[in-house]
Amino acid sequence: MKCVDDFRLKLGNKELVPIVVGGMGVNISTAELALEAARLGGIGHISDAMIQDVADKRFNTTFVKDKTKFYKLNIPKTDKSIVQFDLGLVAEATELHVAATMAAKRGDGMIFVNCMEKLTMNAPRETLRVRMASALDAGIDGITLSAGLHLGSFALIEDHPRFRDAQLGIIVSSVRALQIFLKKNAKHDRLPDFIVVEGPLAGGHLGFGMDWAQYDLATIIADIRQYLEAEHLTIPLIAAGGIFTGTDAVGFLENGSAAIQVATRFTAASECGLPDSVKQEYLKASEEDIEVNTISPTGYPMRMLKSSPSIGSGIRPGCESYGYLLDSKGNCAYITAYNRELALHPGISLKNVSVPDKTCLCTHMSNFNCWTCGQYAYRLKDTTLRQADGSYQILSAEHIFKDYQFSVDNKIALPAPLTSS
């Protein structure tokens, strides 16, 4: 009976354990988590979501504080069009985060940065260019293009000296999305080095509508494989979304996937950036506690725990401090929803405002109050031990990684019980 370790992912001149830890933002996929994946021979992701906030927490910088101070007079205003990011500071924060991570890398694996197109930052092209170029400058092994079609992303970094030697990949959820991406970028004479095929059971933002349950990851991968073969293209496919055991992973590897991408199980890892109290919320969740909703201002459906404090919250938009979802005209769906609720309830205390249909994703992600997860998060309790006080034992990233790597027959390796001193 085969296990994941019987397979290898070939990228460039590397042969890797075919396990990719997905890029969970904001700093949920920490540098420590990515470094463990790389040390063990796989691929780890950091995310550049809200990179200045992440840098402040990691390096005690003051990017967010300084930006808030600079735009403080605009806080009570509904028009956020003037709230811009200093591109030099975006580059500085990115290089700090990426360079420190790469300097600490050990082992034979790789570290990628997850770069979301939907982080429009009130200047979509300019900020995206800086984020990608700065990550390349700082030595990142590769970039995974996510949360969008990225039709112009290759063009933004085509003149970068590492454009052809860094690993560049795209996340898609349909063969159609891949076709559009390849057609648009054909003029750059540069194929993606890998394709992450993300199915409907993934965590966080989904590449589907609210009819997500009608789709199936294996079918999507088969469609994409057929298309690539017809076009005589050899690009490794990485299956993602709902792969909970090593046996699940082997099923995809035996059917043509070059690797698997996993994330939800690593939310319960000690190296994950979620506070331990939030990890316990994930570990105790039942199937009924998981929902797909439309509260994200990005316009994408999003899977999360129903108990997430972000749901129904009516905090004042934090654009002056953050503003990562402002479009090129300074608009955000949460601002619109928030102002609508104020207009509908004149005289209401600001602390009592509730916005049921959208959320201030920036502020809530910064405070770890938006608890995104994969569909099988309710199975997390089956991967660990319950302790005498009712809490669940937190696992190491190494334990979870190796369970994926070596487990067979749908088994999950439980950790050794903690011993009291």
Task: Describe, in plain words, how this protein is organized in 3D.
32% of the residues lie in helices and 14% in strands. With 421 residues, it is α/β, with parallel strands linked by helices. The chain has a domain at 4-272 and 393-406: TIM Barrel (Alpha-Beta Barrel), CATH 3.20.20. The longest helix is centred in the N-terminal third of the chain and has 17 residues, at 87-103. The mean pLDDT is 97.
Number of strands: 15
* Biggest sheet character: 8 strands, parallel, barrel
CATH topology of one domain: the name is TIM Barrel
Trace the largest sheet across and list its strands. 3-4-5-6-7-8-10-11
Classified by CATH, the class of one domain is Alpha Beta
What is the CATH architecture descriptor of one domain? Alpha-Beta Barrel
Overall pLDDT metric: 97
Bin the helical content: 25-40%
**Element string (H = helix, E = strand):** EEEHEHHHEHEHEHEEHEHEHEEEHEHH
| CATH superfamily heading of one domain | Aldolase class I
Distance between the termini: 40 Å
- SS-derived structural category: alpha/beta
Gyration radius (Cα, Å) is 21 Å
Query: Which outline best applies?
Result: globular
Which stretches of 5+ consecutive residues score pLDDT under 50? none
